[in-house]
Amino acid sequence: MSINDFNTSLAHAEARLATAKLRQRSRADRGKMRISQVTITKLQELTCGYLQPRMTAIMQQLQDYCRLHHEKVPARATVYNALITLPTTQYKVATLPAEVRQALYNMNAESIVPGHQLAFYCLNYGNARAISFTASLPWLALYQAQRQRGWHKKSLGLLTAILRARRNL
């Protein structure tokens, strides 16, 4: 075999790639959170307040909690990803103030609205009272609302101002 035998080299490369593909298997939990439900519940508890929690404090408390309960400590990036998908407080439309119900123009009184969607509608379509109501929502609902699509520029500016004010308190 010559050093410059292209066909032989190509056959060897294909054989190496075929065995490499056999070794690569996708994970069974691909596309799912790799955080236990117990840890998610604790993370919800840590982020359900009015003020924005410091990530270092969240990580420290999660680390202590996980070690105490013999759970795997999630990575910081995993916690950030979980914050986007954590369930927020849900509100029944019938129990909300009239101005907020008006902002939720396409929902009936029996509908149940998650906090991030409520913030989105109140800031985009509500009046001053609905916006004021939004400013009182838990931090996590506002954090998740900020990541939604479809914001009006001025409404997103209001939300950003609310979140900045809470960070500086």
Number of helices: 9
Structural class, from secondary structure content? mainly alpha
Query: What gyration radius follows from the Cα positions, in whole Å?
Result: 24 Å
Topology as H/E string? Answer: HHHHEHEHHHH
What's the shape? Answer: elongated
The side-by-side strand order for the widest beta sheet comes to 1-2
Distance from N terminus to C terminus (CA atoms, Å) equals 75 Å
- Oligomerization state: single chain
Residues in helices, as a percent range: 55-70%
Give the averaged pLDDT, no decimals: 88
What is the count of β-strands?
A: 2
Measured by DSSP, the beta-strand proportion falls in under 5%
Main pleated-sheet profile: 2 strands, antiparallel
Poorly predicted ranges (pLDDT <50, ≥5 residues)? Answer: none
Written overview of the protein:
With 169 residues, the chain is mainly α. It has a two-stranded antiparallel ribbon. It starts with 5 loop residues before the first helix and ends with a helix. It contains 9 helices and 2 strands, in the order ααααβαβαααα. The model has no long low-confidence stretch (mean pLDDT 88). It has helices at 6-23, 37-47, 55-68, 76-85, 98-103, 115-125, 128-135, 139-146, 153-168; strands at 90-92, 112-114.
Brief overview:
The chain is mainly alpha-helical. It has nine helices and two strands, in the order ααααβαβαααα.
In terms of topology, how is this protein built?
Layout: H1 6-23, H2 37-47, H3 55-68, H4 76-85, E1 90-92, H5 98-103, E2 112-114, H6 115-125, H7 128-135, H8 139-146, H9 153-168
Antiparallel strand pairs: 1-2
